[in-house]
Design goal:
This protein is mainly α. The protein has a domain of 42 residues. Helices cover 65% and strands 0% of the residues. The chain is built from 3 helices and no strands. Helix 2 packs antiparallel against helix 3. The longest helix is centred in the last third of the chain and has 20 residues. It is elongated and about 55 Å long. The relative contact order is 0.07.
């Protein structure tokens, strides 16, 4: 049995399901805000092959918003 499997089984034995849930991690912040993330997930659910299009749209909206902020 792999080390990961043993680790998971021990966690399950010690703390149940709660031990198997992901815990917060360090790292870079998300690129999408909550609203953008929701929009992206909705659009991709409508057409799963459109992820690049949806992300490009989000990028362009942010770029336009930043340019308008300078004027």
């Amino acid at each position: 049995m792999s080390t990961n499997a043993v680790t998971w089984l021990n966690a399950w034995d010690n703390s149940g399901v709660a031990a198997l849930l992901d815990k917060p991690r360090s790292g870079r912040p998300r690129k999408l805000s909550g609203e953008s993330k929701d929009y992206t997930l909705d659009k991709v659910a409508e057409s799963p092959r459109s992820l690049k299009t949806v992300l490009a749209h989000d990028f362009l909206i942010k770029k336009i918003y930043r340019q308008e902020a300078y004027y």
